[in-house]
């Protein structure tokens, strides 16, 4: 675990998005106890945590499905587990981030703001996490902790072809900047900016970083 900037940053997740931002937190998000233990190890190794960036989603959430055909177990394993993971991480992050006046950033796909056929769970989780971030931002402001959401193009969770198809389905235009963005060059600097002390007055906000595709917020 190394810093995005010269501050100590922990990123959750095990896919290309997390790998492109930073080495991931060693946690499978099986329980809140596991999350707290993993974050405590990171806090000790980094001698304090300045920023936590959450990108983790349960595997089933990023698989195409027909909503009416989902079983209760599939919904719980995908949607409910993903939302629980975000909730556990927020609770576990509170104390170490208060100690550093740090920031918590949730990275979600823009699908939550528009919905998407065949990816109902992914859209539901994205919007649920975004609401959680708003609530945490309101509650933790007095402690000097900021909580924000970065909404990025679905390409960072799905394959390029599926991401392009979804973008065409939810948008009437191509990206203003011509592409969906690169993780290391486009998303990481923005996330690092949210950890800069100069950004201390921004909280409970959603920053849309998809190259100017979704412009409805």
Structural write-up:
- This protein has 217 residues and is of the alpha/beta class.
- The chain has a single domain, classed as NAD(P)-binding Rossmann-like Domain (Rossmann fold).
- 46% of the residues lie in helices and 12% in strands.
- It has 7 helices and 5 strands, in the order E-H-H-E-H-E-H-H-E-H-H-E.
- Strands 1-2-3-4-5 form a 5-stranded parallel sheet, with helices on both faces.
- Helix 3 links the parallel strand 2 and strand 3.
- Helix 2 packs parallel to helix 3 and helix 3 runs parallel beside helix 5.
- The longest helix is centred in the middle third of the chain and has 29 residues.
- The chain is globular, with a radius of gyration of 16 Å.
- The N terminus is likely disordered.
Question: In a nutshell, what does this entry contain?
Answer:
The protein is α/β, with parallel strands linked by helices. The chain has 7 helices and 5 strands, in the order βααβαβααβααβ. It has one domain: NAD(P)-binding Rossmann-like Domain (Rossmann fold).
Unreliable residue runs: 1-5
Give the total of beta strands. Answer: 5
Instruction: Report the total helices.
Output: 7
The CATH topology is given as: Rossmann fold
What's the shape? globular
Binned, the helix content reads 40-55%
What is the spatial order of strands in the main beta sheet?
1-2-3-4-5
Given helix and strand content, the structural type is: alpha/beta
Which series of helices and strands comes N to C? EHHEHEHHEHHE
| Assigned CATH architecture | 3-Layer(aba) Sandwich
Number of domains: 1
CATH superfamily (homologous) name: NAD(P)-binding Rossmann-like Domain
Largest β-sheet summary: 5 strands, parallel
